[in-house]
C-alpha cells in the first residue's frame, strides 16, 4: 500500500521565506585625503587665494667697523584653490519607491557620499579624472621633485621605505617630516616581511589585536574606498598637513519631481520626470585643494615636495618635456636658475637654461619667471611623444 505525504514541493507555495530585515553591505568609506589634509575655512566664491611665502631674505656679515651693510628682499606668491564640482542624479520611478521595503533614498545617499570621497582621493593623489582647473596631483608633484623611488628587480623594502634614498628620506631631504603613509591593501603582505638590519621584524603582529602599521612613527592607512591605484604607486608617504582643501558647497541633496533628464553626450531627453511619474535624487559637492609649498630655509626655491612615493614594478609611462630658456639678446644666452612652473610642479633651469619634466598625457598651464625678467605664460600639451619648448625671457630693465 502506497504511503502519501504532503512534501515540501507540494507545500512550496505556502511556505514563507525568511528574509533578513537588513541589507548586507559594508560600511560606506570616506575620503582618506580629506581626513589627513588640513581643512581651510569654507570657500565663499569659486576661487580662493592663498598668500604663500615665495622668496626669503638673506642676512650678511658686515666686514669691519665701517663695512657696508647689504640689502635683501622678501616676496610672496599667490596659490589658488579652484572649486570643482562633483554631482550625480539618480532617477527612480515613484512606483518603485512606493513598493520598496526600504528607504531607497536613505540607502543611496551614503553610497553616493562614498563615491564622492573616492573621486576626491583618486583625483588629488593620483590625478585620475583631475579637474582641469586643479593643480597637478600629488604623484605628479612628487615625481617632478625627484621624489619617486624605483623598485628594481630584487627589492629590499626596508631600504626602499626606511633607508637612505627611500621614500621617507626623500621627504626629509626636502625639509619635511612625514605625518602619514597610504598604500594599497596588497602592500600589507610586503610590509609583514620587512626586517631591520638586525633581522627583527619591523611590523610585529599582536595576538590580541590587529597589527598596527607605521613607517618611522608615521601612521599608515590602507584606503578601502576604491581610490588607491597601485598601478601608479605602491605607497605614498608625506607631510599631509602641507596639503590644504576648502569646501565651497558641502554635500547637498535635492529631490526633483519636475524636469527632464538628458543624455550628456547626445543631449536627447531620456526621462521626463513629471510625465513618467519619476523622481530624481540630485547630489552636489564642490571643493578645491592645493599644495602651497611655501619657501623654507631648506627649500628656498620651492622646487621640493613634501610627498614621495614608491613606484610599482612597472612605472607609469610618461613623456619627457624639455624647456630651454634663453634671453632675447642678438645672440641668445641661456638663462640659468629660472623657475619653470608646470601647473604647480617647479624646476629651476640648469647652467644651460634647461629644465626637464616627465609628464603624463594632458594639458598643463606653464609659468616661467626669474627676477629681472618678465614672466612668460604658456600652455603645454603632452600626448604620446617627447616635447621640447624654447622660451625667451625679456629683461625688465
Report on the structure:
This protein has 397 residues and is of the alpha+beta class. Among the domains are: 32-37 and 81-248 and 286-300 and 304-310, no CATH class; 319-393, Immunoglobulin-like, CATH 2.60.40. The protein is 15% helix and 32% strand. It has helices at 32-36, 94-99, 104-126, 138-144, 157-162, 167-173, 187-191, and strands at 38-39, 47-55, 75-82, 84-93, 148-149, 180-183, 214-215, 218-221, 235-238, 244-256, 260-262, 269-272, 278-290, 307-310, 319-327, 339-342, 345-348, 354-359, 362-369, 376-382, 387-393. It has a 6-stranded mixed sheet, with helices on both faces. Strands 1-10-13-4 form a 4-stranded mixed sheet. Strands 17-16-19-20 form a 4-stranded antiparallel sheet. 27% of the residues are buried.
Amino acid at each position: 500500500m502506497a504511503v502519501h505525504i504532503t512534501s515540501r514541493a507540494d507545500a512550496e507555495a505556502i511556505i514563507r521565506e525568511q528574509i533578513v530585515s537588513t541589507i548586507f553591505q559594508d560600511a560606506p568609506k570616506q575620503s582618506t585625503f580629506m581626513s589627513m589634509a588640513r581643512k581651510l575655512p569654507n570657500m565663499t566664491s569659486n576661487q580662493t587665494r592663498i598668500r604663500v611665502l615665495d622668496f626669503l631674505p638673506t642676512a650678511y656679515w658686515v666686514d669691519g667697523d665701517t663695512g657696508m651693510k647689504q640689502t635683501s628682499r622678501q616676496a610672496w606668491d599667490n596659490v589658488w584653490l579652484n572649486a570643482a564640482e562633483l554631482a550625480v542624479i539618480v532617477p527612480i520611478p515613484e512606483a518603485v519607491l512606493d513598493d520598496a521595503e526600504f528607504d531607497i533614498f536613505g540607502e543611496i545617499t551614503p553610497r553616493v557620499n562614498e563615491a564622492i570621497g573616492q573621486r576626491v582621493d583618486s583625483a588629488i593623489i593620483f590625478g585620475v579624472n583631475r579637474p582641469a582647473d586643479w593643480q597637478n596631483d600629488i604623484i605628479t608633484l612628487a615625481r617632478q621633485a625627484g621624489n619617486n623611488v624605483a623598485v628594481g628587480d630584487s627589492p629590499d623594502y626596508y631600504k626602499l621605505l626606511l633607508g637612505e634614498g627611500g621614500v621617507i628620506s626623500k621627504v626629509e631631504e626636502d625639509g619635511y617630516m612625514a605625518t602619514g603613509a597610504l598604500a594599497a591593501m596588497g602592500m600589507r603582505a610586503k610590509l609583514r616581511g620587512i626586517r631591520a638590519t638586525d633581522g627583527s621584524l619591523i611590523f610585529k603582529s599582536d595576538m590580541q589585536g590587529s597589527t598596527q602599521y607605521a613607517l618611522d612613527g608615521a601612521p599608515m592607512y590602507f584606503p578601502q574606498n576604491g581610490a588607491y591605484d597601485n598601478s601608479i604607486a605602491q605607497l605614498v608617504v608625506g607631510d599631509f598637513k602641507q596639503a590644504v582643501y576648502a569646501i565651497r558647497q558641502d554635500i547637498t541633496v535635492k529631490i526633483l519631481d519636475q524636469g527632464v533628464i538628458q543624455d550628456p553626450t547626445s543631449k536627447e531627453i531620456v526621462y521626463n520626470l513629471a510625465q513618467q511619474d519619476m523622481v530624481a535624487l540630485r547630489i552636489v559637492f564642490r571643493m578645491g585643494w592645493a599644495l602651497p609649498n611655501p619657501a623654507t630655509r631648506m627649500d628656498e626655491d620651492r622646487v621640493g615636495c613634501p610627498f614621495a612615493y614608491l613606484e610599482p614594478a612597472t612605472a607609469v609611462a610618461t613623456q619627457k618635456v624639455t624647456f630651454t630658456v634663453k634671453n632675447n639678446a642678438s645672440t641668445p644666452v641661456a638663462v640659468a636658475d629660472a623657475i619653470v612652473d608646470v601647473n604647480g610642479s617647479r624646476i629651476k633651469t640648469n647652467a644651460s637654461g634647461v629644465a626637464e619634466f616627465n609628464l603624463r598625457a594632458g594639458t598643463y598651464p606653464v609659468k616661467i619667471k626669474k627676477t629681472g625678467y618678465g614672466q612668460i605664460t604658456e600652455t603645454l600639451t603632452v600626448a604620446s611623444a617627447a616635447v621640447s619648448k624654447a622660451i625667451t625671457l625679456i629683461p625688465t630693465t
